[in-house]
């Protein structure tokens, strides 16, 4: 078992699937000759050739539209959006065509759209967003947000196997920052099964993606004060593991929902509402949300820091709940 | 407030389930000097009677709650002005004030009697709409009850207002109520339990015909404000009326609740204490001389009881919800009557299973002394797992004691009397002999303990006493 970065885990998982299954191919802007903006597909074209590692025109609509057609014809495309932000260009292909095809015609659309997302490096408003909740709202799409290298590989393999369009949000700030042991052999990580990142008794944090690590640091701070924090990493938002969340709520009765996406309409609202509906009598404090504010992501490093939930923000929120 | 240097004395929290206390005696009067930790007053709560030490050094400037009054935990009782701090000008020099004069400003209710800063304009016309609330200073206000706390409270029949809160603003958190329930705290706490004592509502008694569609008022709603002035009953000719003190109310509530909770059965065993009498006769002077400990029969009985509990653990147990909780330790409660019928208190000897005869004898003397001298701490009266009560000293021969909740058994020790009994002589013939006999009465909770189980426990207890071996205890 080798230690790998989050980025290597994605790359290795994808390569493994391409070696295993000839139907799997990659398409995106600069994924071939250049090896991808973040080098996830570096060396892929040499190994699999230009017909399986396709440099596309600068058109997300074309990429997703092409993938949908190829999937209907029996292939297993894995598209890369250079930045998750650009997926808005492919909205119609995804939401109107890919998401509805199975319902309208009974045809599965097994596509994966890889979405390098998230901020933390002054990428500004076009290169830092976390648009997962927009797509979680669309029936017919699945939404995956791995937080660890092991999950990055396992969830990618599951996404490729899945007969539905899957949006695979890979957080750019985790690419080279997070390293962990990743099994070499092929494995799948099931959708809809949360991972208890950290067990605790006093307060639960429900989160996903890069915020798992922000929560983890905050939890370590609070441990010194005798507050025991449980972190539930959802792993996938569609489907999401209500059972695990409600179990944690029953245990701690105090909940912080944390995401890097902006506040209004963020997926945290869905989680908070579900807790209120199904676990009201388990609550010992109001459900708290910590999110980015309703604003574009700023370029300026200090402003971006103020925008994205930081460890101190989460620690303060947790303290507030613990003291409630 | 110009009282930054003044120290407030408040009604202390004496144990988790105690919500109020009664001032029994002020040991210092207004104007008197007091040192830090010097006893300032005596209070009585439903758990313990105790002295309250002064939180600081200075002069007792003001006494806000008079003897005999009962107030909530946290209520301000007195103000102490530290030595050297400037006494407010409005007050007469407190030094020689002999009698506890009423506070200088007689009109306003006791509410906020902290003296105004001297600079304040003369007699502001009460700026705040000073509510005619009882003498609390707002500390004990009810706060928000969260959904989970409400659910746990209703599942366990706990009155949330009885649970001490550690959350923001004193809110009762889930942890608080879980700890309260796990500590075996009284379900149905006092205010509710007192409700039945209130005179029936003035409405005409409901005739047997059911009222129309209107839903009946829930009992919970009826229990709302315990303070809502109960009309004072009046003494008829030849009657004397006196208020119950906190301890009496506590006993009344607990006894009633225990009978409502446990299925009480009492079984009585006759014990021949010849052997114990002989051993005690021998050991008593030795204990007196070597250890200064009075060796009582109670110590023997306690020792033999603890031995018997080892084999009959359900007598040292508790019913918690649907679970049977058996304790691996014996926290032995010893009922101590206070003088003059002033009440009863059950201090606990913790981990009595680890004490030999001497240790138990010493423990019993210690807690009985401290109970009578009001030196018990809240800890001393909590956590009992089995209780012994001892009215035999006054000649009682049979009793059916009430179990101390949440325990499941209580042993009643009756008078030691010489009686003619039939025994066998050396040749196996029946003869009548004079023997020191004692009845031991065990009340047990038949919900958990069946008759055969209780009888077998008592049989073993009798054997332990009749064959008491001093070396093994």
Can you describe what's shown?
The complex is a heterodimer of chains A (324) and B (473). Chain A is α/β, with parallel strands linked by helices. Helices cover 38% and strands 20% of the residues of chain A. Chain A contains eleven helices and 14 strands. In chain A, strand 4, helix 4 (91-105) and strand 5 (112-117) form a beta-alpha-beta unit. In chain A, helix 1 (6-20) runs parallel beside helix 6 (149-161) and helix 8 crosses helix 9. The model of chain A has no long low-confidence stretch (mean pLDDT 97). With 473 residues, chain B is of the alpha+beta class. Chain B is built from nine helices and 18 strands. In chain B, the strands form five sheets. Chain B has a six-stranded mixed β-sheet. Chain A binds chain B through residues 253, 280-285, 323-324, and chain B through 146-151, 167-168, 171, 173-174.
């Amino acid at each position: 078992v080798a230690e790998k970065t989050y980025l290597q885990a994605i790359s290795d998982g994808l390569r493994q699937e391409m070696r295993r299954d000839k139907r799997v191919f990659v398409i995106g802007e600069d994924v071939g000759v250049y090896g991808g903006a973040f080098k996830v597909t570096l060396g892929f074209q040499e190994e699999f050739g230009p017909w399986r590692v396709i440099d596309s025109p600068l058109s997300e609509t074309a990429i997703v539209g092409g993938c949908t057609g190829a999937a209907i014809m029996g292939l297993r495309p894995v598209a890369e959006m250079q930045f998750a932000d650009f997926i808005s260009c492919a909205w119609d292909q995804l939401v109107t065509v890919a998401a509805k095809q199975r319902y309208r015609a009974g045809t599965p659309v097994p596509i994966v759209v890889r979405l390098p997302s998230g901020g933390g490096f002054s990428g500004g408003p076009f290169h830092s967003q976390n648009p997962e909740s927009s797509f979680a709202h669309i029936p017919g799409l699945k939404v995956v947000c791995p937080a660890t290298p092991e999950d990055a590989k396992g969830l990618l393999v599951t996404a490729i196997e899945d007969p539905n369009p899957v949006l695979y949000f890979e957080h750019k700030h985790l690419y080279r920052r997070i390293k962990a042991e990743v099994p070499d052999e092929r494995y799948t990580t099931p959708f809809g099964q949360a991972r208890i990142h950290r067990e605790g008794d006093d307060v639960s944090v429900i989160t996903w993606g890069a915020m798992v690590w922000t929560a983890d640091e905050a939890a370590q701070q609070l441990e010194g004060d005798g507050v025991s924090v449980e972190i539930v990493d959802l792993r996938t938002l569609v489907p999401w593991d209500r059972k695990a969340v409600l179990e944690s709520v029953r245990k701690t009765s105090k909940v912080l929902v944390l995401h890097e996406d902006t506040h209004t309409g963020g997926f945290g609202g869905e989680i908070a509402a579900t807790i209120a509906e199904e676990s009201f009598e388990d609550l010992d404090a109001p459900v708290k949300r910590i999110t980015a504010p309703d604003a574009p992501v700023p370029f300026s490093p200090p402003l971006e820091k103020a925008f994205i939930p930081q460890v101190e923000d989460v620690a303060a929120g947790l303290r507030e709940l613990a003291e409630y | 407030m110009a009282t930054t240097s003044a120290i407030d004395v408040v009604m202390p929290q004496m144990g988790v389930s105690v919500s109020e206390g009664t001032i029994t005696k002020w040991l210092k009067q207004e104007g008197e000097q007091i040192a830090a930790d010097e006893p300032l007053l005596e209070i009585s709560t439903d758990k313990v009677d105790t002295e309250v030490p002064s939180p600081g050094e200075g002069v007792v400037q003001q006494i806000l709650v008079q003897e005999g009054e009962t107030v909530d935990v946290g209520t301000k009782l007195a103000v102490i002005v530290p030595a050297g701090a400037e006494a407010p000008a409005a007050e007469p020099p407190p030094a020689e004030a002999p009698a506890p004069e009423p506070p200088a400003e007689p009109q306003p209710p006791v509410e906020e009697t902290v003296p105004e800063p001297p600079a304040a304009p003369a007699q502001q016309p009460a700026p705040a709409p000073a509510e005619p609330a009882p003498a609390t200073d707002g500390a004990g206000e009810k706060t928000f009850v969260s959904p989970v706390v409400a659910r746990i409270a209703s599942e366990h029949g706990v009155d949330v207002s009885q649970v001490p809160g550690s959350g923001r603003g004193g809110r009762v958190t889930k942890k608080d109520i879980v700890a309260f329930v796990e500590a075996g705290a009284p379900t149905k706490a006092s205010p509710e339990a007192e409700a039945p004592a209130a005179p029936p509502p003035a409405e005409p008694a409901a005739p047997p015909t059911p009222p129309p569609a209107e839903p009946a008022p829930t009992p919970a709603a009826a229990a709302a404000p315990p303070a809502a002035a109960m009309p004072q009953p009046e003494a008829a000719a030849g009657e004397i009326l006196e208020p119950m003190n906190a301890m009496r109310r506590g006993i009344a509530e607990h006894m009633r609740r225990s009978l409502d909770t446990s299925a009480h059965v009492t079984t009585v065993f006759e014990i021949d204490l010849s052997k114990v009498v002989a051993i005690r006769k021998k050991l008593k002077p030795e204990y007196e001389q070597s250890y200064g400990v009075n060796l009582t029969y109670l110590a023997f009985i306690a020792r033999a009881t603890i031995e018997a509990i080892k084999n009959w653990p359900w007598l040292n147990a508790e019913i918690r919800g649907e679970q049977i909780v058996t304790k691996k330790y014996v926290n032995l409660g010893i009922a101590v009557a206070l003088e003059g019928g002033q009440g009863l208190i059950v201090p606990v000897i913790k981990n009595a299973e680890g004490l030999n005869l001497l240790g138990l004898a010493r423990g019993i003397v210690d807690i009985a002394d401290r109970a009578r001298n009001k030196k018990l701490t809240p800890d001393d009266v909590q956590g009992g797992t089995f209780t012994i009560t001892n009215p035999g000293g006054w000649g009682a021969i049979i009793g059916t004691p009430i179990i101390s909740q949440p325990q499941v058994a209580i042993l009643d020790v009756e008078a030691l009397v010489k009686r003619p009994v039939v025994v066998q002589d050396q040749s196996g013939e029946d003869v009548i002999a004079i023997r020191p006999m004692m009845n031991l009465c065990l009340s047990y909770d038949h919900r958990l303990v069946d008759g055969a189980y209780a009888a077998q426990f008592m049989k073993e207890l009798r054997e332990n006493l009749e064959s008491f071996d001093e070396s093994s205890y």
